[in-house]
Amino acid sequence: MPVDANGKPLWSFIHGNWALDNSHPDGVCCGVNNELIVLREEGCYADYTFPAAPDPCQTSTINKIYYAKDDPHKPKSHDTGVRVKVGGKAWGDLMIIQGPIGFMFKNRKFGLLPRIENADVRTSIPPTPDRIDAWVETGIHVEGRPEWIFIKVHTHGTQERDINTLLGEPMDKAFSYLEEKYNDGVNWQLHYVSARETYNIIKAAEAGLSGNPNQYRDYLIPRPTFVPQSGA
Fold it and tell me: What's the distance, Cα to Cα, between the start and end of the chain in Å?
C-alpha cells in the first residue's frame, strides 16, 4: 500500500452496497452521514463507487470526475460537487471518479425499453463491442482535457456464474477489441491503469500537464512499497 511522507497509508474506496455517505433512502447499508470526512481523514484519496443505477443510491451527478464536500449532518453529500478541471484545485473532502452511465439501445427489456448502461460487466451483460464503444463515447474526462478519456467499469468478481465471462473468452474478446480499435497510435492510445494511477493522471491533468498520460502514473501518490520481513 502506498504511504505519504509521514508513513500514513493512502488508498481508494468502493462502497460495497453503493450507499456511500448514508445515501440509501431507507437509511440502510451505511448509517454514517460524515463518511466522506472519515474517508479523507483515514487516507482515502478518491471514491470509485459509481455508477449505481438502477439502485436508489445513484447520484444526480453522472459521467463526471468531481470533488464532493461533506455535510456531516446530512446524507449523500456527494450527490453534487465541483468538477475537476485543468487549472483547478482540490476542493471539499473527496474526489469522486465515476464510470459511464447511459442506456443500452441494443439491449432492450421486453424488446422495447433500453436497459441501463451502468458499466457493470458480468455474464448477463458481457463487455460487447457496442458497450465498449458507448463507454468511450461517454467521454468521461477532466474538464479542459477531453482527449484523456477515463473508463471505469466494475463487476462482482466473487460470483461463480460470472467467472467464465470475467476470466474467459468474453473478456478476452473485449481486450482484443479495445486493442484493435482504440490503440492505433494515431487517433487512439490505450492505457490500462490501476485506481492509484488513474487518480495520479487526473491530478496531472488538473495541474495543467499534457502529452502522453502514461508518464503521470506516479505523479502524486507513490507506488506501493514492499518492506521485506526478516526471518524468525
Answer: 24
CB 21 within 8 A of CB 76: yes
Give the CA distances from residue 30 to residues 67, 77, 95, 201, 213, in Å, rounded to whole numbers and listed in that order: 21, 14, 19, 30, 36
Radius of gyration from C-alpha coordinates of the chain:
19
Dump the DSSP string for 116-157.
EE-SB-BTTB---HHHHHHHHHH----BT-TTS-----B--T
The answer to whether residues 165 and 126 touch, using CB atoms and an 8 Å cutoff, is yes
At 98, list the grid cell. 465515476
The beta strand positions in 62-169, using DSSP E, are: 65-68, 82-83, 94-97, 102-109, 113-117
Q: What is the pLDDT along the chain (232 residues), one digit of tens a residue?
A: 888 888 889 999 999 899 999 999 999 999 999 999 999 999 999 999 999 999 999 999 999 999 999 999 999 999 999 999 999 999 999 999 999 999 887 777 666 778 899 999 999 999 999 999 999 999 999 999 999 999 999 998 778 999 999 999 999 999 999 999 999 999 999 999 999 999 999 999 999 999 999 999 999 999 987 666 665 4
CA distance 170 to 144: 34
Closest CA to 46 of 78, 74, 73: 78
Between CA 32 and CA 22 the distance in angstroms is 5
Task: At 9, list the grid cell.
Answer: 497509508
